[in-house]
Amino acid sequence: MFESVGNLPLHPLVLHAVVIGIPLALLASLFFALPRTRSWARLALPVVAVGALVATFVAKESGEALQRTLAASQQLEPGTPTAVLIQAHAHLAGQLMLIMVGVAVLALVNAVVVGRVGGTPERRGSRGRDVVLVALLVASAFVASFWVYRVGDVGARAVWNPTGDANYSSSTR
């Protein structure tokens, strides 16, 4: 199911949704953190965060399918620099998946709880609780955005420069 679309592997196609979706979740969490834009972001935040979680899941599963396909066709020899980088990439992707589960849960909890519990506008609940929940949301979204960079960096090195020999710099020094 997660192998290919037509004759193209699904993984390089779907990972772009992750690279866009996770920073969008960070942006939505920052808008949610600001009281002026919270009402707007209350709906967008969980939609974007859950969408980024789903995209992360599909990218992870399609990456594992691609890894199995490459290993079965003997295009990926164990112990080579490429195989080592792909293993590191897969490990970081597993961690990103867990981080995104946390971001999505925090996004849903924040959208439902922050500023709404307690009934009337005069008595909305615990301000301290709201601050802690929003801080956890923003911090986890920052971690996810950094982690997607780490995962992508290792994956790109596996594809484009597994040995570290190539120099793609445009500087002529």
Can you walk me through this structure?
The protein is mostly helical and 173 residues long. It has one domain. The chain is built from four helices and two strands. A two-stranded antiparallel sheet has the order 1-2. The N and C termini lie far apart (47 Å).
List keywords for this structure.
mainly alpha, single chain, 72% helix, 173 residues, two-stranded antiparallel ribbon, 2 strands
Low-pLDDT runs of 5+ residues are none
Strand fraction equals under 5%
Largest sheet properties: 2 strands, antiparallel
* Rounded average pLDDT: 89
Kindly name the structural category.
mainly alpha
Termini separation comes to 47 Å
Enumerate the strands of the largest sheet in spatial order, edge to edge or round the barrel.
Answer: 1-2
Please give the number of β-strands.
2
- Helix tally? 4
What Rg, in angstroms, do the CA atoms define? 20 Å
Anisotropy-based shape: elongated
Q: Strand-and-helix sequence, N→C?
A: EEHHHH
Total discrete domains: 1
The helix content, as a percent range, equals over 70%
Topology at a glance:
Layout (H helix, E strand, L loop, with lengths): L3 E2 L2 E2 L1 H23 L4 H35 L8 H33 L13 H34 L13
Antiparallel strand pairs: 1-2
Helix pairs in contact: 1-2, 1-3, 1-4, 2-3, 3-4
Briefly summarize what is shown.
This protein has 173 residues and is mainly α.
